[in-house]
């Protein structure tokens, strides 16, 4: 028995439009769509006799089935609203800084994107692969399509953009060029746990034909290759070798990259961390943890230099920030003043300022009277802190400090005042007093060492200032606006804090004023 096929339509499509709210023309169009076209004359007589009856029965059955079906939901009710702006901003976050990507770059071949500055810092810090998937990567290139999308998003909501300060810092790090990942470093050889604590491993120059181009004249046998001739830890250091002060690896004393600090007498390998495992000329050395002004702000030792006077430290930091004076420049001024004195750095050495800085054992000083030229980072920081107060005492006399700071009365107790930690007292009284140098007895010299006599306490302080041609004070700024330090006023002519302050040079502090 043949069955006819009937196609159902939703009930709302067959319903006529409401007459109260619809245009009459829409009702006419609806009636025209519901009118069926008659069959072609060529099909007349081809239908069986019962076809009309069967068609009527099928139509009634379909009508009953449609009435039993649940009503269809409205199309507009099934649409879920989407906050396109928030979704897009979330998708465009940098995986490194978790903020809207700025100057986007794409890593090849994985196609992960980051801020240009974030990816640049990743590469500078030794990254050799993608920061997101850690997959092998080769090139990092700017992404113009992503930048167009970000610009469009920021036009819709500018508040999602970075601040002006953040953009300036990012532009200093990344300039918009194509970057390449460095080649991955070779994996370190597996460490033999059984012999690592019993035998000394050779230095980087002991292996014949090493990549550094210099062979150790007294090579140390590798315990993993020649255990019978390996050097035991209990036997001390092998001949011609020492421990690096920073990384504590074995080093060859006579290697071209090996250097020794003239202050603490500790040697450095110059290989593991080239910026730290080295002793440089003191004018070029970076003081440890005192590289920029931010380090000075976070340093607690700077407050010790001023006896806990936080108000005076704030004035100093404000002065350094307004003139963009780096700690390295202060160190150069202090070193020049030390070298201008007859004793030089000898009082600091005699007071033990440079002892026990590193965990490795220093070597004996071959010539105590030799000039001090090379310096490590730790000793550079000690020299900076030892002369910072004296440097600031001299710098204040140039007239560049705020007038209300210099207008304060001098405290009768001077630097030894116990009330200078009180903020109100520090604001009312000045505790940075320039006076004549007072004699200070250095510790007893070691046998065989020659110590210069102490500085003359009666040396007068030259108060004369260089005058301009018009008779007024000369501006202490160069052509580019940078302050020019007048080192004719040496720190050695300032007063001393006393023998109880071994950190400071005997000629760099200040003594009590007699009132």
UniProtKB/TrEMBL annotation:
<keyword id="KW-0833">Ubl conjugation pathway</keyword>
<keyword id="KW-0131">Cell cycle</keyword>
<protein>
    <recommendedName>
        <fullName>RING-type domain-containing protein</fullName>
    </recommendedName>
</protein>
<feature type="compositionally biased region" description="Basic and acidic residues">
    <location>
        <begin position="56"/>
        <end position="67"/>
    </location>
</feature>
<dbReference type="GO" id="GO:0016567">
    <property type="term" value="P:protein ubiquitination"/>
</dbReference>
<dbReference type="InterPro" id="IPR040909">
    <property type="entry name" value="CHFR_Znf-CRD"/>
</dbReference>
<keyword id="KW-0479">Metal-binding</keyword>
<dbReference type="GO" id="GO:0004842">
    <property type="term" value="F:ubiquitin-protein transferase activity"/>
</dbReference>
<keyword id="KW-0863">Zinc-finger</keyword>
<dbReference type="GO" id="GO:0006511">
    <property type="term" value="P:ubiquitin-dependent protein catabolic process"/>
</dbReference>
<dbReference type="InterPro" id="IPR001841">
    <property type="entry name" value="Znf_RING"/>
</dbReference>
<dbReference type="Pfam" id="PF17979">
    <property type="entry name" value="zf-CRD"/>
</dbReference>
<feature type="compositionally biased region" description="Polar residues">
    <location>
        <begin position="1"/>
        <end position="33"/>
    </location>
</feature>
<feature type="region of interest" description="Disordered">
    <location>
        <begin position="1"/>
        <end position="74"/>
    </location>
</feature>
<keyword id="KW-0862">Zinc</keyword>
<feature type="domain" description="RING-type">
    <location>
        <begin position="94"/>
        <end position="134"/>
    </location>
</feature>
<feature type="region of interest" description="Disordered">
    <location>
        <begin position="440"/>
        <end position="515"/>
    </location>
</feature>
<keyword id="KW-0539">Nucleus</keyword>
<dbReference type="InterPro" id="IPR013083">
    <property type="entry name" value="Znf_RING/FYVE/PHD"/>
</dbReference>
<dbReference type="GO" id="GO:0008270">
    <property type="term" value="F:zinc ion binding"/>
</dbReference>
<dbReference type="Pfam" id="PF00097">
    <property type="entry name" value="zf-C3HC4"/>
</dbReference>
<dbReference type="InterPro" id="IPR052256">
    <property type="entry name" value="E3_ubiquitin-ligase_CHFR"/>
</dbReference>
<dbReference type="GO" id="GO:0005634">
    <property type="term" value="C:nucleus"/>
</dbReference>
<feature type="compositionally biased region" description="Basic and acidic residues">
    <location>
        <begin position="457"/>
        <end position="478"/>
    </location>
</feature>
<keyword id="KW-0808">Transferase</keyword>
<dbReference type="InterPro" id="IPR018957">
    <property type="entry name" value="Znf_C3HC4_RING-type"/>
</dbReference>
């Amino acid at each position: 028995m043949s069955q006819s096929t009937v196609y159902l339509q939703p009930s709302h499509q067959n319903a006529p439009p409401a007459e109260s709210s619809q245009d009459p023309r829409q009702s006419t169009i609806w009636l025209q769509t519901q009118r069926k076209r008659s069959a072609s004359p060529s099909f007349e007589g081809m239908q069986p006799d019962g076809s009309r009856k069967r068609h009527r029965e099928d139509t009634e059955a379909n009508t009953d089935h449609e009435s039993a079906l649940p009503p269809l939901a409205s199309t507009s009710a099934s649409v879920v609203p989407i906050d396109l702006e928030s979704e897009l901003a979330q998708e465009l976050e940098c995986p490194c800084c978790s903020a809207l990507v700025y100057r986007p770059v794409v890593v090849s071949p994985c196609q992960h994107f980051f801020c240009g500055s974030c990816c640049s810092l990743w590469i500078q810090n030794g990254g050799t692969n993608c920061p997101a998937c850690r997959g092998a990567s080769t090139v990092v290139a700017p992404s113009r399509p992503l930048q167009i999308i970000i610009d469009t998003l920021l036009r819709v909501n500018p508040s999602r953009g970075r601040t002006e300060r953040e953009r300036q810092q990012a532009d200093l790090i990344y300039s918009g060029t194509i970057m390449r990942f460095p080649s991955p470093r070779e994996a370190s050889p597996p460490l033999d746990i059984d012999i690592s604590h019993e035998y000394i491993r050779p230095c980087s120059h002991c292996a014949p034909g090493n990549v550094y181009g210099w062979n150790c004249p007294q090579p140390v046998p590798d315990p993993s290759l020649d255990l019978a001739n390996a050097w035991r830890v209990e036997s001390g250091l092998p001949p011609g070798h020492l421990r690096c002060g920073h990384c504590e690896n074995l080093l060859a004393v006579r290697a071209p990259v090996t250097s020794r600090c003239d202050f603490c007498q500790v040697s450095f390998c110059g290989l593991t961390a080239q910026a730290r495992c080295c002793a440089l000329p003191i004018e070029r050395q970076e003081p440890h943890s005192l590289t920029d002004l931010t380090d000075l702000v976070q340093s607690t030792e700077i407050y010790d230099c001023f006896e806990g006077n936080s108000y005076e430290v704030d004035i100093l930091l404000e002065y350094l920030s307004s003139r963009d004076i780096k700690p390295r420049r202060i160190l150069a001024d202090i070193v020049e003043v030390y070298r201008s004195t007859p004793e030089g750095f000898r009082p600091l050495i005699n007071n033990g300022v440079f002892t026990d800085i590193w965990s490795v054992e220093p070597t004996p000083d071959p010539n105590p009277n030799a000039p001090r030229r090379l310096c490590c980072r730790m000793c550079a920081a000690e020299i900076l802190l030892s002369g910072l107060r004296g440097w600031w005492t001299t710098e204040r006399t140039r007239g560049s400090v705020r007038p209300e700071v210099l207008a304060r009365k001098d405290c009768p107790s001077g630097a030894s005042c116990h009330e200078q930690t009180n903020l109100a007292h520090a604001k009312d009284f000045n505790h940075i007093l320039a006076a004549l140098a007072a004699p200070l007895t250095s510790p007893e010299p070691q046998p065989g060492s020659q110590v210069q006599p102490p500085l003359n306490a009666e040396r007068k302080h030259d108060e004369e200032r260089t005058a301009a041609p018009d008779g007024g004070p000369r501006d202490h700024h160069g052509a580019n606006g940078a302050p020019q330090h007048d080192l004719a006023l040496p720190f050695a002519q300032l007063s001393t804090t006393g023998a109880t302050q071994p950190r400071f040079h005997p000629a760099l502090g200040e003594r009590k004023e007699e009132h």
